[in-house]
Design goal:
0% of the residues lie in helices and 59% in strands. Strands 2, 4, 5, 6, 9, 10 and 11 form a seven-stranded mixed sheet that branches. The protein has a four-stranded antiparallel sheet with strand order 1-3-8-7, with no helix packed on it. A hairpin with a 2-residue loop joins strand 9 and strand 10. The relative contact order is 0.33.
Amino acid sequence: QVQLVESGGGLVQAGGSLRLSCVASGSANTMGWHRQAPGKQRELVARITRAGMITYTDSVKGRFTISRDNAKNMVYLQMSSLKPEDTAVYYCNADLWVRDRLSNYWGQGTQVTVYS
């Protein structure tokens, strides 16, 4: 079964840090993190290609770091200097090779809550 499984969310005080992890069930091309806050649309946070090219949304630049381990089919999001506005459900997203086809998949989401 093709799946992405996230972990690492939680409750943290503003200024603190959290690290999110996501493991894919198979080989992935681009992997990334999106988030959705209550009443808002889901937005890209960061993405990383298999070759290591990275994109961040402006609001997290300098605070979040995305990385991946291709051998383990994993992607990570190190979040530092967290702000209450970072509160959201964070979703892992990846383009996975399944039966010789590249398709896009989402994880189930992990809640990140930042309190002031």
